[in-house]
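Hi team,

As requested, here is the filled-out complex form for the uridine-diphosphate-N-acetylglucosamine run. I kept the field names the same as last time so the parser does not choke. Let me know if anything looks off before we queue the next batch.

— J.
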Amino acid sequence: MKTAVVLGTRPEIIKMSPVIRECQAKGLDCFILHSGQHYSHNLDRVFFAQLELPEPKYNLEVGSGSHAEEMGKMLIGIEKVLQQEKPDVVLAEGDTNTVLASALAAAKLHIKVGHVEAGLRSYDRKMPEEINRVLTDHCSDYLFAPTEETRLTLVGEGIAGEKIFVTGNTIVDAVYQNLKIANSSEVNAMKELHLQPKRYFLVTIHREENVDNPGRFTGILEGLNRIAHKFGMPVIYPIHPRSKARMSEFGLQANRVRFVEPVDFLSFLQLESSARLILTDSGGVQEESCILNVPCVTLRDNTERPETIKIGSNILAGAYPDRIVECSRKMLSANNDWRQPFGDGKAGERIVRIIMESSV
Ligand code: UD1
Ligand code: UDP
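And here is what came back:
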């Protein structure tokens, strides 16, 4: 059986790393197809090197563009590779343009599609990620749902139960596999940034709905300035290139926020696990904060990770300065003793076992 792992962005590389490692461990005939959606060293190469992943056999180098430009180039490039390689199954993870392009290209060639992290919904169709997730789920043959809630969502949308497998989320595997390494490695992000454990806030914001909207981005930055002042803690923001570009385009500033370049995964795990509070609009970071028992304030009006809200690890603050302060205050007094709902760290093993068993 031949497997193609298609990926293209930072979170896909991180969340597919346990699956790729398991494919290697089981001696599967497997290759990586990189769309090239992310290409900057600190959003791409750094993760291959640090997670010791095999080199992609193909990189389509589609780069950045409008949604249609990115998707169009990816569809054409992915189709060519799939026609040449003829894999039995294509695995893709998450909700980016790369994921939808790989699912569409494969499904139309009658190649089986396995969607890792299936069934998440924000119910906000203005988000490009929501369109990508819904469409990918509905043309997939294997839906690897991280939780029981996500399985029920898929069943509710009419997807046949036998296609759905509750595996846990591979982010748990990635955190468990790398946290120990992070703690014993020479990398010391805290020292480099002169930070004291539990004496700083960590921020990431990059989603289109926030940073491409000057009003929302201004509100968020104002909220961050206010919490830095009010709680007297440094606010560290490893800034995604999209957000950096928008700040300069819109002429935005946040004088109390410390902006740094995006960091490697081990450094980021160190920064997350020692943070007093995390503020984010990232999907992966909402999950990681929950897994690491660090409280999270989500700078969005909705989340496709409602499990985190239910157990009290996360709260929605939107992009409103007063609410960001209020939600931060609330989460600073959380007990941080929740049990994360995303699985036991063996999602990668389950996913690979399922595709191997179904091919015999
Ligand atoms: C994409 C995903 C988003 C995911 C994020 C992970 C879609 C629709 N969005 O958003 O769901 O959360 O990746 O980080 O697929 N850029 C660089 N270097 C890079 C990549 C991007 O400088 O390596 C800059 C470019 O200015 C580019 C902008 O970031 O125009 C946006 O990149 P793009 O890949 O279109 O979307 P992301 O915001 O990264
Ligand atoms: N991450 C990282 N360095 C950073 C910021 C984030 O390694 O400077 C990792 C983080 O640990 C998580 C993933 O990137 O695993 C999340 O990706 P991102 O926020 O870009 O995308 P999303 O999860 O929102 O799709």
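Two things worth flagging: Residues 48 and 114 are 22 Å apart (CA to CA). Residues 67-85 form the longest helix (19 residues).

Thanks,
J.
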